């Protein structure tokens, strides 16, 4: 099965849905048909580029410019309390993997990526960027869709139009926490600006952003996934990028959540007017100080007393 996508142009915005599917048992005929359909989807995904024997990932047409991203999880009737923990672990896996990549390859493109976590039955908010909900069964449009992300973006600025929505099936609350975590992790990759990746496996485990990624194995974002994010956040929209040969294609193992980051210089730009005023004050004070020092000492002495006229006798 290939990914289902839908595009709608309206009022300078573009909307798209991206789905992840479960793999079912296929007959030989079904396998051949699937290969044909998959080839067609791949051809469309890379925008008429030839299929290459390389590790590649498609980039979407948007990226976030304001962080942290606010994520609201809807704990509806199809959930279990542990699903909230699974979703949070999925989001943490992205932050940890980005931190791992940043420190390994000294690339600070994603230093600001972070999120805030909300639950509708605990600390709900009406001001959210990503909305995660759960469904009882498979999700339209495909018969095997287990996760679906829907988003739109401004065609001029390439900024997403909140909220991005993520839907995850729980099979009426019977899905395992690992299943929910893996689907949430895959779909959040789409919410960050990634499409699907090839091939199916890295050197040390499954590829998270493969169109039908593993549901029941431990999986983390790969070097290809995070490299793709660095490219889209540097302005490479709507392209397919290939992992440089200098970077091994592996899942990024988990590490501790990083400490708060030093605020990048761009966050100080809003204080530029204040910096300019303070600079001018310092300059004026320095000039006045120099002027006062250049005055001659005699200019500061009192005038001499007039001489007395007369003669001595």
Give a concise summary.
The protein has 313 residues and is an alpha/beta fold.
Descriptive notes:
- The chain is α/β, with parallel strands linked by helices and 313 residues long.
- The protein has a single domain (7-266), classed as Collagenase (Catalytic Domain) (3-Layer(aba) Sandwich).
- It has helices at residues 28-45, 81-105, 177-192, 223-232, 272-293, 297-300; strands spanning 7-10, 13-21, 56-59, 69-73, 115-119, 130-135, 145-154, 164-169, 194-198, 240-242.
- The strands form two sheets. Strands 1-2-7-8-6-4-5 form a seven-stranded mixed beta sheet, covered by helices on one side. A three-stranded antiparallel beta sheet has the order 9-3-10.
- α2 (81-105) crosses α3 (177-192).
- The longest helix is centred in the N-terminal third of the chain and has 25 residues, at 81-105.
- The radius of gyration is 30 Å and the shape is elongated.
- The model is unreliable at 1-12, 24-53 and 256-268 (pLDDT under 50).
Break the fold down into its secondary structure elements and pairings:
Layout: E1 7-10, E2 13-21, H1 28-45, E3 56-59, E4 69-73, H2 81-105, E5 115-119, E6 130-135, E7 145-154, E8 164-169, H3 177-192, E9 194-198, H4 223-232, E10 240-242, H5 272-293, H6 297-300
Parallel strand pairs: 4-5, 4-6, 6-8
Antiparallel strand pairs: 1-2, 2-7, 3-9, 3-10, 7-8
